[in-house]
Amino acid sequence: MALSLIPFIQQRCNTVNFFMRRTGPELWKTITAVSKSGQKKGRRATRQPIRNLDRFYRIGSGPMKVQFAGLNAPLEIKKDPVMLVEQSEEEQKEEREKFKKIVEEKPTSASKRRFREKLHPLERGFSGTQLVGQKLGPPPPVGDVNFDDFQTYCLEVKRTSNMTRVFGRVHTMNALIVTGNGRGLAGYAVGKAAIHRTNNAIVNAMKMASRKLFFVELLEGRTIYQDFYAECRNTRIFAQRRPAGFGLICHPRLVKICEVIGIKDIYVKVEGSTRNYLALTHAFITGLLNQETHQQLAERKGLHVVEMSPHRHYLPEIVASPILTDLKTDDEVLPIEKLKLDDFYGEGRYALRKKKVLPFYINTPGHKEAQWRKHPFRNQEQAMIRLLADGVVERWTRDKRRAWGEARNEAVMNGLLPLPRGIGLSDVVPKPEK
Protein backbone atom coordinates (compact mmCIF):
# COMPACT_ATOMS: atom_id res chain seq x y z
CA MET A 1 0.00 0.00 0.00
CA ALA A 2 1.43 3.33 -1.13
CA LEU A 3 1.14 6.39 1.00
CA SER A 4 0.50 9.81 -0.47
CA LEU A 5 2.91 12.57 0.48
CA ILE A 6 0.27 15.26 -0.18
CA PRO A 7 -1.10 16.49 3.13
CA PHE A 8 -4.77 15.64 3.67
CA ILE A 9 -6.94 18.73 3.96
CA GLN A 10 -10.60 18.15 4.82
CA GLN A 11 -12.99 20.55 3.05
CA ARG A 12 -16.62 20.76 3.91
CA CYS A 13 -19.02 20.85 0.92
CA ASN A 14 -22.54 21.65 2.08
CA THR A 15 -24.78 20.80 -0.90
CA VAL A 16 -28.03 21.04 1.06
CA ASN A 17 -28.51 24.63 2.16
CA PHE A 18 -31.23 27.27 2.03
CA PHE A 19 -30.72 27.90 -1.69
CA MET A 20 -30.42 24.25 -2.72
CA ARG A 21 -33.13 22.71 -0.57
CA ARG A 22 -36.01 23.37 -3.05
CA THR A 23 -36.17 22.82 -6.79
CA GLY A 24 -37.27 25.41 -9.33
CA PRO A 25 -40.82 24.02 -9.88
CA GLU A 26 -41.36 23.91 -6.12
CA LEU A 27 -40.32 27.55 -5.76
CA TRP A 28 -42.63 28.61 -8.61
CA LYS A 29 -45.47 26.69 -6.99
CA THR A 30 -45.23 28.84 -3.86
CA ILE A 31 -46.30 31.96 -5.79
CA THR A 32 -48.53 30.44 -8.49
CA ALA A 33 -50.52 27.80 -6.61
CA VAL A 34 -54.22 28.41 -5.88
CA SER A 35 -56.33 26.43 -3.44
CA LYS A 36 -59.52 24.62 -4.45
CA SER A 37 -61.70 27.24 -2.82
CA GLY A 38 -59.66 29.99 -4.49
CA GLN A 39 -60.18 28.40 -7.92
CA LYS A 40 -63.94 28.51 -7.41
CA LYS A 41 -63.75 32.22 -6.57
CA GLY A 42 -61.67 33.10 -9.63
CA ARG A 43 -58.26 33.61 -8.05
CA ARG A 44 -56.52 31.51 -10.67
CA ALA A 45 -56.73 34.33 -13.24
CA THR A 46 -54.98 36.78 -10.88
CA ARG A 47 -51.83 34.66 -10.47
CA GLN A 48 -48.72 35.38 -12.54
CA PRO A 49 -47.74 32.63 -15.01
CA ILE A 50 -44.48 30.71 -14.73
CA ARG A 51 -41.81 32.47 -16.78
CA ASN A 52 -38.63 31.00 -18.23
CA LEU A 53 -36.05 33.35 -16.70
CA ASP A 54 -33.10 31.71 -18.48
CA ARG A 55 -34.29 33.14 -21.80
CA PHE A 56 -34.12 36.73 -20.57
CA TYR A 57 -31.43 36.88 -17.87
CA ARG A 58 -28.06 35.21 -17.68
CA ILE A 59 -25.67 35.43 -14.73
CA GLY A 60 -22.99 38.06 -15.23
CA SER A 61 -24.58 39.74 -18.25
CA GLY A 62 -25.74 42.98 -16.58
CA PRO A 63 -24.30 46.49 -17.09
CA MET A 64 -21.83 45.75 -14.25
CA LYS A 65 -20.45 42.47 -15.50
CA VAL A 66 -19.89 40.18 -12.52
CA GLN A 67 -17.41 37.35 -12.98
CA PHE A 68 -17.96 34.30 -10.81
CA ALA A 69 -14.91 32.06 -10.78
CA GLY A 70 -15.88 28.62 -11.99
CA LEU A 71 -19.31 29.76 -13.26
CA ASN A 72 -18.81 32.28 -16.06
CA ALA A 73 -15.06 32.84 -15.71
CA PRO A 74 -12.01 30.56 -15.42
CA LEU A 75 -11.00 29.40 -11.96
CA GLU A 76 -7.80 31.09 -10.84
CA ILE A 77 -6.38 30.85 -7.32
CA LYS A 78 -4.68 34.26 -7.27
CA LYS A 79 -7.79 36.22 -8.23
CA ASP A 80 -10.84 36.92 -6.12
CA PRO A 81 -13.78 34.52 -6.60
CA VAL A 82 -16.08 37.45 -7.52
CA MET A 83 -14.93 40.38 -9.66
CA LEU A 84 -16.74 43.38 -11.16
CA VAL A 85 -15.86 44.28 -14.74
CA GLU A 86 -17.53 47.09 -16.63
CA GLN A 87 -19.00 46.19 -19.99
CA SER A 88 -18.05 48.10 -23.09
CA GLU A 89 -20.65 49.88 -25.20
CA GLU A 90 -20.43 47.20 -27.87
CA GLU A 91 -21.16 44.45 -25.34
CA GLN A 92 -24.09 46.39 -23.88
CA LYS A 93 -25.50 47.00 -27.38
CA GLU A 94 -25.11 43.33 -28.20
CA GLU A 95 -26.98 42.33 -25.03
CA ARG A 96 -29.85 44.75 -25.79
CA GLU A 97 -30.20 43.46 -29.34
CA LYS A 98 -30.16 39.90 -28.08
CA PHE A 99 -32.89 40.65 -25.54
CA LYS A 100 -34.96 42.47 -28.20
CA LYS A 101 -34.63 39.51 -30.53
CA ILE A 102 -35.87 37.13 -27.83
CA VAL A 103 -38.90 39.31 -27.11
CA GLU A 104 -39.85 39.76 -30.77
CA GLU A 105 -39.49 36.14 -31.78
CA LYS A 106 -42.73 34.23 -32.25
CA PRO A 107 -43.99 32.31 -29.24
CA THR A 108 -43.90 28.55 -29.20
CA SER A 109 -46.92 26.46 -30.03
CA ALA A 110 -47.54 25.78 -26.33
CA SER A 111 -47.88 29.46 -25.44
CA LYS A 112 -49.63 30.51 -28.63
CA ARG A 113 -53.16 31.79 -28.20
CA ARG A 114 -56.00 29.77 -29.59
CA PHE A 115 -56.82 30.84 -33.13
CA ARG A 116 -60.22 32.50 -33.38
CA GLU A 117 -61.94 32.79 -36.71
CA LYS A 118 -63.34 36.25 -37.39
CA LEU A 119 -67.09 35.89 -37.85
CA HIS A 120 -69.61 38.14 -39.53
CA PRO A 121 -71.66 40.17 -37.01
CA LEU A 122 -74.81 38.26 -37.98
CA GLU A 123 -73.08 34.90 -37.33
CA ARG A 124 -71.78 35.73 -33.86
CA GLY A 125 -73.29 34.22 -30.77
CA PHE A 126 -75.46 35.76 -28.09
CA SER A 127 -72.54 37.40 -26.27
CA GLY A 128 -69.10 38.30 -27.60
CA THR A 129 -66.97 35.42 -28.85
CA GLN A 130 -68.78 32.75 -26.86
CA LEU A 131 -69.82 29.57 -28.63
CA VAL A 132 -73.40 29.90 -27.37
CA GLY A 133 -75.62 30.98 -30.26
CA GLN A 134 -73.16 30.26 -33.09
CA LYS A 135 -73.69 27.87 -35.98
CA LEU A 136 -72.03 24.50 -35.33
CA GLY A 137 -72.80 22.77 -38.63
CA PRO A 138 -74.50 19.38 -39.12
CA PRO A 139 -74.34 16.62 -36.49
CA PRO A 140 -72.01 13.65 -37.05
CA PRO A 141 -73.49 10.84 -39.18
CA VAL A 142 -75.14 7.84 -37.56
CA GLY A 143 -74.22 4.71 -39.48
CA ASP A 144 -75.26 5.20 -43.11
CA VAL A 145 -77.47 8.21 -42.29
CA ASN A 146 -75.92 11.65 -42.68
CA PHE A 147 -77.27 15.06 -41.72
CA ASP A 148 -75.71 17.30 -44.37
CA ASP A 149 -78.77 19.56 -44.66
CA PHE A 150 -79.04 20.08 -40.88
CA GLN A 151 -77.88 23.10 -38.89
CA THR A 152 -77.02 23.06 -35.19
CA TYR A 153 -77.05 25.78 -32.53
CA CYS A 154 -75.79 25.72 -28.95
CA LEU A 155 -78.39 27.32 -26.67
CA GLU A 156 -76.62 27.03 -23.31
CA VAL A 157 -73.39 25.87 -21.69
CA LYS A 158 -73.24 25.73 -17.91
CA ARG A 159 -71.46 24.00 -15.05
CA THR A 160 -73.45 21.69 -12.79
CA SER A 161 -72.43 19.87 -9.62
CA ASN A 162 -73.46 16.73 -7.80
CA MET A 163 -72.58 15.86 -4.21
CA THR A 164 -71.35 12.26 -3.94
CA ARG A 165 -70.39 10.21 -0.92
CA VAL A 166 -66.99 9.13 -2.25
CA PHE A 167 -65.66 12.06 -4.30
CA GLY A 168 -67.55 14.93 -2.69
CA ARG A 169 -68.83 17.66 -4.99
CA VAL A 170 -68.33 16.55 -8.61
CA HIS A 171 -68.62 19.24 -11.31
CA THR A 172 -69.71 18.55 -14.89
CA MET A 173 -70.34 20.61 -18.03
CA ASN A 174 -73.82 20.66 -19.58
CA ALA A 175 -74.59 21.79 -23.15
CA LEU A 176 -78.09 22.32 -24.59
CA ILE A 177 -78.11 21.72 -28.36
CA VAL A 178 -80.88 22.08 -30.97
CA THR A 179 -80.56 20.86 -34.56
CA GLY A 180 -82.88 20.80 -37.58
CA ASN A 181 -83.14 20.93 -41.37
CA GLY A 182 -85.37 24.03 -41.61
CA ARG A 183 -88.32 22.03 -42.99
CA GLY A 184 -90.04 20.89 -39.82
CA LEU A 185 -87.62 18.15 -38.75
CA ALA A 186 -85.64 18.99 -35.61
CA GLY A 187 -84.33 17.64 -32.32
CA TYR A 188 -82.77 18.82 -29.08
CA ALA A 189 -80.77 17.21 -26.28
CA VAL A 190 -78.52 17.93 -23.30
CA GLY A 191 -74.96 16.61 -23.39
CA LYS A 192 -72.65 16.19 -20.40
CA ALA A 193 -68.90 15.92 -20.00
CA ALA A 194 -66.20 16.38 -17.39
CA ILE A 195 -65.39 19.82 -16.02
CA HIS A 196 -63.66 22.18 -18.53
CA ARG A 197 -64.55 19.80 -21.39
CA THR A 198 -67.10 22.02 -23.12
CA ASN A 199 -66.41 20.72 -26.62
CA ASN A 200 -66.96 17.13 -25.50
CA ALA A 201 -70.32 18.08 -23.98
CA ILE A 202 -71.38 19.81 -27.21
CA VAL A 203 -70.38 16.83 -29.37
CA ASN A 204 -72.24 14.42 -27.08
CA ALA A 205 -75.35 16.62 -27.23
CA MET A 206 -75.19 16.78 -31.04
CA LYS A 207 -75.06 12.99 -31.24
CA MET A 208 -78.04 12.66 -28.89
CA ALA A 209 -80.07 15.36 -30.67
CA SER A 210 -79.65 13.61 -34.04
CA ARG A 211 -81.20 10.48 -32.49
CA LYS A 212 -84.21 12.30 -30.98
CA LEU A 213 -85.79 13.94 -34.02
CA PHE A 214 -89.42 15.06 -34.25
CA PHE A 215 -91.54 16.64 -36.99
CA VAL A 216 -93.55 19.86 -36.65
CA GLU A 217 -96.44 20.68 -38.99
CA LEU A 218 -96.21 24.23 -40.37
CA LEU A 219 -98.92 26.37 -41.94
CA GLU A 220 -97.84 27.38 -45.45
CA GLY A 221 -94.34 26.24 -44.47
CA ARG A 222 -93.69 29.42 -42.45
CA THR A 223 -95.82 29.73 -39.26
CA ILE A 224 -97.86 27.77 -36.72
CA TYR A 225 -101.43 26.57 -37.27
CA GLN A 226 -103.00 28.23 -34.24
CA ASP A 227 -102.10 30.33 -31.21
CA PHE A 228 -101.23 28.22 -28.18
CA TYR A 229 -100.16 28.45 -24.55
CA ALA A 230 -97.52 26.16 -23.02
CA GLU A 231 -95.61 26.05 -19.77
CA CYS A 232 -92.78 24.16 -18.11
CA ARG A 233 -91.86 24.74 -14.47
CA ASN A 234 -92.00 28.52 -13.99
CA THR A 235 -91.73 29.40 -17.70
CA ARG A 236 -94.92 30.31 -19.55
CA ILE A 237 -95.13 31.17 -23.24
CA PHE A 238 -97.87 32.54 -25.50
CA ALA A 239 -97.24 31.83 -29.20
CA GLN A 240 -99.23 33.64 -31.88
CA ARG A 241 -99.10 33.12 -35.64
CA ARG A 242 -98.41 36.11 -37.84
CA PRO A 243 -98.80 36.98 -41.56
CA ALA A 244 -96.04 36.55 -44.11
CA GLY A 245 -93.14 38.95 -43.73
CA PHE A 246 -93.69 39.58 -40.01
CA GLY A 247 -90.48 37.84 -38.92
CA LEU A 248 -89.44 36.26 -35.63
CA ILE A 249 -90.32 38.44 -32.65
CA CYS A 250 -89.50 36.26 -29.66
CA HIS A 251 -86.81 35.23 -27.16
CA PRO A 252 -83.28 34.97 -28.67
CA ARG A 253 -83.14 31.23 -27.85
CA LEU A 254 -86.54 30.73 -29.48
CA VAL A 255 -85.28 32.54 -32.59
CA LYS A 256 -82.63 29.84 -33.05
CA ILE A 257 -85.18 27.09 -32.46
CA CYS A 258 -87.53 28.62 -35.05
CA GLU A 259 -84.69 28.84 -37.58
CA VAL A 260 -83.79 25.15 -37.34
CA ILE A 261 -87.48 24.14 -37.49
CA GLY A 262 -88.36 26.46 -40.39
CA ILE A 263 -90.72 28.94 -38.71
CA LYS A 264 -90.40 32.37 -40.34
CA ASP A 265 -93.31 34.40 -38.91
CA ILE A 266 -94.30 34.17 -35.23
CA TYR A 267 -94.70 36.24 -32.09
CA VAL A 268 -93.95 34.61 -28.72
CA LYS A 269 -94.42 36.26 -25.34
CA VAL A 270 -92.43 34.67 -22.49
CA GLU A 271 -93.49 35.18 -18.89
CA GLY A 272 -92.01 33.97 -15.63
CA SER A 273 -88.49 32.54 -15.73
CA THR A 274 -86.79 33.64 -18.95
CA ARG A 275 -83.31 32.27 -18.12
CA ASN A 276 -84.22 28.63 -17.60
CA TYR A 277 -83.41 27.80 -21.20
CA LEU A 278 -84.11 24.08 -20.91
CA ALA A 279 -87.63 24.74 -19.58
CA LEU A 280 -88.13 27.40 -22.25
CA THR A 281 -87.12 24.98 -25.01
CA HIS A 282 -89.24 22.16 -23.63
CA ALA A 283 -92.35 24.36 -23.27
CA PHE A 284 -92.10 25.77 -26.80
CA ILE A 285 -91.51 22.41 -28.49
CA THR A 286 -94.29 20.80 -26.45
CA GLY A 287 -96.70 23.46 -27.70
CA LEU A 288 -95.57 22.89 -31.29
CA LEU A 289 -96.04 19.12 -31.07
CA ASN A 290 -99.52 19.49 -29.56
CA GLN A 291 -100.76 21.43 -32.59
CA GLU A 292 -103.52 20.22 -34.86
CA THR A 293 -103.71 20.78 -38.58
CA HIS A 294 -106.93 22.17 -40.00
CA GLN A 295 -107.83 18.75 -41.39
CA GLN A 296 -107.24 17.04 -38.03
CA LEU A 297 -109.40 19.64 -36.31
CA ALA A 298 -112.19 19.14 -38.84
CA GLU A 299 -112.07 15.36 -38.35
CA ARG A 300 -112.12 15.66 -34.57
CA LYS A 301 -115.00 18.15 -34.37
CA GLY A 302 -116.99 16.96 -37.40
CA LEU A 303 -117.37 20.54 -38.62
CA HIS A 304 -116.02 22.76 -41.36
CA VAL A 305 -112.95 24.84 -40.53
CA VAL A 306 -113.73 28.34 -41.81
CA GLU A 307 -111.30 31.25 -42.08
CA MET A 308 -112.48 34.87 -42.07
CA SER A 309 -109.63 37.12 -43.08
CA PRO A 310 -109.64 40.94 -43.19
CA HIS A 311 -107.97 40.70 -46.61
CA ARG A 312 -111.25 39.30 -47.94
CA HIS A 313 -113.45 41.67 -45.92
CA TYR A 314 -114.12 38.84 -43.42
CA LEU A 315 -115.94 36.74 -45.99
CA PRO A 316 -115.90 33.09 -44.82
CA GLU A 317 -113.74 30.59 -46.69
CA ILE A 318 -113.77 26.85 -45.97
CA VAL A 319 -110.22 25.69 -45.24
CA ALA A 320 -110.87 22.04 -44.30
CA SER A 321 -113.86 19.70 -44.15
CA PRO A 322 -114.29 16.31 -42.44
CA ILE A 323 -113.72 13.32 -44.73
CA LEU A 324 -113.63 10.25 -42.48
CA THR A 325 -116.27 11.48 -40.02
CA ASP A 326 -119.83 12.61 -40.66
CA LEU A 327 -120.54 16.31 -40.87
CA LYS A 328 -122.66 17.53 -37.97
CA THR A 329 -125.86 19.41 -38.58
CA ASP A 330 -126.99 22.54 -36.76
CA ASP A 331 -129.18 20.45 -34.45
CA GLU A 332 -126.26 18.19 -33.47
CA VAL A 333 -124.01 21.08 -32.46
CA LEU A 334 -124.41 21.62 -28.71
CA PRO A 335 -124.52 25.15 -27.28
CA ILE A 336 -121.56 24.41 -24.98
CA GLU A 337 -119.24 23.37 -27.82
CA LYS A 338 -116.31 25.64 -28.60
CA LEU A 339 -116.51 27.10 -32.07
CA LYS A 340 -113.77 29.76 -32.01
CA LEU A 341 -110.17 28.74 -32.61
CA ASP A 342 -108.88 30.98 -29.79
CA ASP A 343 -110.83 28.87 -27.26
CA PHE A 344 -109.19 25.54 -28.15
CA TYR A 345 -105.48 25.68 -27.35
CA GLY A 346 -105.11 28.49 -24.82
CA GLU A 347 -106.12 26.40 -21.77
CA GLY A 348 -108.47 29.17 -20.71
CA ARG A 349 -105.87 31.89 -21.16
CA TYR A 350 -106.09 34.70 -23.65
CA ALA A 351 -103.48 37.12 -24.91
CA LEU A 352 -103.60 40.54 -23.27
CA ARG A 353 -104.25 43.15 -25.92
CA LYS A 354 -103.90 46.55 -24.33
CA LYS A 355 -105.68 49.55 -25.74
CA LYS A 356 -103.58 52.31 -27.19
CA VAL A 357 -103.00 55.03 -24.61
CA LEU A 358 -104.52 58.32 -25.77
CA PRO A 359 -102.26 61.39 -25.68
CA PHE A 360 -102.86 64.09 -23.12
CA TYR A 361 -103.91 66.64 -25.76
CA ILE A 362 -106.71 64.52 -27.22
CA ASN A 363 -109.51 66.72 -25.79
CA THR A 364 -107.87 70.12 -26.12
CA PRO A 365 -109.67 72.69 -28.35
CA GLY A 366 -106.67 73.14 -30.65
CA HIS A 367 -106.39 69.40 -31.37
CA LYS A 368 -110.12 69.07 -32.02
CA GLU A 369 -110.02 71.97 -34.46
CA ALA A 370 -107.06 70.39 -36.30
CA GLN A 371 -108.88 67.07 -36.52
CA TRP A 372 -111.98 68.84 -37.90
CA ARG A 373 -109.88 70.43 -40.66
CA LYS A 374 -108.45 67.02 -41.61
CA HIS A 375 -111.89 65.39 -41.58
CA PRO A 376 -112.72 65.95 -45.30
CA PHE A 377 -109.46 64.21 -46.32
CA ARG A 378 -109.70 61.21 -43.97
CA ASN A 379 -110.16 58.62 -46.77
CA GLN A 380 -107.86 60.20 -49.36
CA GLU A 381 -104.87 57.91 -48.72
CA GLN A 382 -106.95 54.73 -48.74
CA ALA A 383 -108.75 55.87 -51.91
CA MET A 384 -105.40 56.46 -53.62
CA ILE A 385 -104.20 52.96 -52.66
CA ARG A 386 -107.45 51.44 -53.93
CA LEU A 387 -107.22 53.28 -57.28
CA LEU A 388 -103.65 52.06 -57.74
CA ALA A 389 -104.59 48.50 -56.77
CA ASP A 390 -107.58 48.40 -59.16
CA GLY A 391 -105.55 49.80 -62.04
CA VAL A 392 -107.68 52.91 -62.46
CA VAL A 393 -104.60 55.09 -61.96
CA GLU A 394 -101.27 53.93 -63.32
CA ARG A 395 -98.39 53.64 -60.91
CA TRP A 396 -96.15 56.71 -61.07
CA THR A 397 -92.88 54.82 -60.78
CA ARG A 398 -89.38 56.26 -61.04
CA ASP A 399 -88.85 54.92 -64.55
CA LYS A 400 -92.11 56.43 -65.75
CA ARG A 401 -91.25 59.79 -64.21
CA ARG A 402 -87.88 59.76 -65.97
CA ALA A 403 -89.48 58.82 -69.30
CA TRP A 404 -92.08 61.59 -68.91
CA GLY A 405 -89.35 64.15 -68.16
CA GLU A 406 -87.29 63.09 -71.18
CA ALA A 407 -90.35 63.34 -73.44
CA ARG A 408 -91.17 66.84 -72.15
CA ASN A 409 -87.56 67.94 -72.63
CA GLU A 410 -87.53 66.67 -76.20
CA ALA A 411 -90.82 68.46 -76.97
CA VAL A 412 -89.48 71.74 -75.58
CA MET A 413 -86.24 71.42 -77.54
CA ASN A 414 -88.21 70.80 -80.75
CA GLY A 415 -90.39 73.83 -80.13
CA LEU A 416 -93.59 71.88 -79.63
CA LEU A 417 -94.00 73.15 -76.07
CA PRO A 418 -93.07 76.54 -74.62
CA LEU A 419 -90.19 76.68 -72.18
CA PRO A 420 -91.59 76.99 -68.63
CA ARG A 421 -90.57 80.20 -66.92
CA GLY A 422 -91.15 81.62 -63.49
CA ILE A 423 -89.70 82.03 -60.05
CA GLY A 424 -87.07 79.38 -59.41
CA LEU A 425 -86.94 78.29 -63.08
CA SER A 426 -84.24 79.02 -65.60
CA ASP A 427 -84.75 81.81 -68.09
CA VAL A 428 -83.73 82.12 -71.73
CA VAL A 429 -81.52 85.07 -72.51
CA PRO A 430 -81.30 85.75 -76.24
CA LYS A 431 -77.85 86.37 -77.63
CA PRO A 432 -77.24 90.00 -78.61
CA GLU A 433 -76.99 90.60 -82.33
CA LYS A 434 -73.63 91.91 -83.47
UniProtKB/TrEMBL annotation:
Subunit record text: Component of the mitochondrial ribosome small subunit (28S) which comprises a 12S rRNA and about 30 distinct proteins.
Position of the signal peptide: none
GO terms for cellular component: mitochondrial inner membrane; mitochondrial small ribosomal subunit
Protein name per UniProt: Small ribosomal subunit protein uS5m
Gene transcribed to yield this protein: mrps-5
InterPro entries: Ribosomal_Su5_D2-typ_SF (IPR020568), Ribosomal_uS5 (IPR000851), Ribosomal_uS5_C (IPR005324), Ribosomal_uS5_N (IPR013810), Ribosomal_uS5_N_CS (IPR018192), Ribosomal_uS5m_N (IPR048584), Ribsml_uS5_D2-typ_fold_subgr (IPR014721)
PANTHER family: MITOCHONDRIAL RIBOSOMAL PROTEIN S5
Keyword list, A-Z: Mitochondrion, Ribonucleoprotein, Ribosomal protein
Compartment(s) of residence: Mitochondrion
